[in-house]
């Protein structure tokens, strides 16, 4: 399936959209003031060890200390047998407060959580990933042919110098790479690691030793494959820089790069701006008339499938089946577009037929196979729910572009004016028992004041008689519906 890549550049941010069949499949945003940290290598200092959590907090120079779990601490292999698991020593016997460690960010800070770290270093290239601490050569699982895997392993072994102590992971894209391209990648990665090692001996902790490529450069390294059609870049300066980068590191990509010079904004031309707005909505409409409801919480994301206005042409079971099949395709796309991660629960419409359930699950897995992020999908549970996980390494689209509503504080709903009227009456009664003012003045929104003057005027009059104090009303246009003040005059 042909895929185009759109790169929109402004001084404040870079946005990348991956398009298939005219629809946005993925959206990546990197802001100048807050670049992602995944892949960065730091010289950090251990500030606290928590044996109860088997974790440590590491100062790497960020606003919040980063988090290192015992499972993410690399230990040299004692033998070549990787099939036998070795017991992990407790963290208190591995690191200590004040210790200097070279660490790499494997998960960006999300919400109130700091960045997650690993002491196993990896440096990504176009066709290879360099593992300076590991002596073996691994092959991407997406390369299924055993003969091809062995051929690639032999090719890399021939390119690696005899005194090389590190290892490599061969990426899927290396399957069609020329020997010269692989050799250039080996040399580039080894040189990068040498520079990192030299810098780590010269600077005090905490310090940044290596920063991953910016988003525009990562497009050429990570996103482009044999099915990529064209890469449109709407900035001349960035286009020239990418062309130079491609000529040095990814010459096969150079012919796909195009400088977009049209008068109409690139994202407007391909309807990406509209798609971004839709991706921030809870509701996603399906072509058949059904729809999805997507709710993202801190712990998990839930997706509910509904038939909506779709009535089908045959029977009810057929209507449900067709809606669920369409929903499976849309769910896979929405997970990529919104970058939803963690635990995901999908509530498909209940299906009586086991064959229908199997077909929907197979369609979902097939659609998810195009996702570059690691995904685990379980079958239907006893409650008829599909449980899955998608690795979360960066903030979701909604968390990047939005913040909780200042009015509802993220609840998604506000109290009705009538509820607020009753809250206010109770509050005035409470304050009348504690204080003895001359008058109570209520300052509230137009909706609340109007209700007190009309339908709730009798209840307000009853309270005035009961407390024996006048209550005056004042509208404040800047107040939102839930906001009010009671002033003692």
Automatic annotation (TrEMBL):
Keywords: Cytoplasm, Endonuclease, Hydrolase, Magnesium, Metal-binding, Nuclease, RNA-binding, rRNA processing, rRNA-binding, tRNA processing, tRNA-binding. SUPFAM superfamilies: Nucleic acid-binding proteins (SSF50249). The lineage of its organism: Bacteria, Pseudomonadati, Pseudomonadota, Betaproteobacteria, Burkholderiales. GO terms for molecular function: endonuclease activity; hydrolase activity; metal ion binding; RNA nuclease activity; rRNA binding; tRNA binding. This is Ribonuclease G. GO terms for biological process: rRNA processing; tRNA processing. Residues 39-120 form the S1 motif domain. GO terms for cellular component: cytoplasm. It comes from the Bacteria. The keyword RNA-binding applies. InterPro entries: NA-bd_OB-fold, RNA-bd_AU-1/RNase_E/G, RNase_E/G, RNase_E_G_thioredoxin-like, S1_domain. Pfam families: RNase_E_G, RNase_E_G_Thio. CDD domains: S1_RNase_E.
């Amino acid at each position: 399936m042909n895929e185009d890549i759109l790169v929109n550049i402004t001084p404040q941010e870079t946005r990348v959209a991956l398009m298939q069949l005219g629809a946005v499949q993925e959206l990546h945003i990197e802001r100048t003031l807050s670049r992602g940290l995944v892949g960065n290598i730091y010289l950090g200092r251990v500030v606290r060890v928590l044996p109860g959590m088997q974790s440590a907090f590491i100062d790497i120079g960020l606003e919040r200390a980063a988090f290192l779990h015992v499972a993410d601490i690399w230990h040299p292999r004692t033998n070549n047998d990787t099939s036998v698991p070795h017991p992990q020593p407790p963290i208190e016997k591995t690191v200590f407060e004040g210790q200097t460690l070279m660490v790499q960010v494997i998960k960006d800070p999300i919400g109130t959580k700091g960045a997650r770290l690993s002491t196993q270093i990896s440096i990504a290239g176009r066709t290879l990933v360099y593992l300076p601490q590991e002596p073996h050569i691994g092959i991407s699982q997406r390369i299924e042919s055993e003969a091809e895997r062995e051929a690639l392993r032999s090719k890399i072994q021939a390119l690696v110098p005899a005194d090389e102590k590190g290892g490599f992971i061969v990426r899927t894209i290396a399957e069609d790479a020329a020997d010269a391209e692989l050799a250039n990648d080996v040399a580039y990665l080894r040189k990068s690691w040498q520079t990192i090692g030299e810098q780590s001996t010269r600077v005090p902790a905490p310090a940044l030793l290596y920063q991953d490529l910016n988003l525009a450069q990562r497009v050429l390294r990570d996103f482009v494959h044999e099915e990529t059609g064209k890469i449109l870049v709407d900035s001349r300066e960035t286009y020239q820089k990418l062309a130079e980068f491609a000529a040095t590191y990814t010459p096969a990509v150079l012919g796909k790069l195009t400088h977009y010079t049209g008068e109409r904004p690139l994202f407007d031309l391909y309807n990406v701006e509209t798609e971004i707005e839709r991706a921030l909505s809870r509701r996603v409409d399906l072509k058949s008339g059904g729809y999805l409801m997507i709710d993202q919480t801190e712990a998990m994301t839930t997706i509910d499938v509904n038939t909506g206005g779709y009535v089908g042409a045959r029977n009810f079971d057929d209507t449900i089946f067709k809606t669920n099949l369409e929903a499976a395709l849309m769910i896979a796309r929405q997970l990529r577009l919104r970058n939803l991660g963690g635990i995901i629960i999908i509530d498909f419409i209940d299906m009586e037929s086991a064959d229908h359930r199997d077909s929907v699950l197979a369609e979902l897995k097939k659609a998810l196979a195009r996702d570059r992020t690691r995904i685990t999908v379980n079958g239907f549970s006893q409650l008829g729910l599909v449980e899955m996980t998608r690795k979360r390494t960066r903030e979701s689209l909604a968390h990047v572009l939005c913040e909780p509503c200042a009015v509802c504080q993220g609840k998604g709903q506000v109290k009705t004016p009538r509820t607020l009227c009753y809250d206010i009456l109770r509050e005035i009664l409470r304050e009348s028992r504690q204080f003895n003012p001359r008058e109570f003045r209520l300052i509230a929104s137009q909706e609340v004041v109007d209700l007190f003057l009309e339908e709730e005027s009798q209840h307000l009059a009853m309270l005035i008689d009961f407390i024996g104090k006048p209550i005056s009303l004042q509208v404040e246009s800047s107040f939102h519906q839930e906001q009010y003040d009671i002033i003692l005059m």
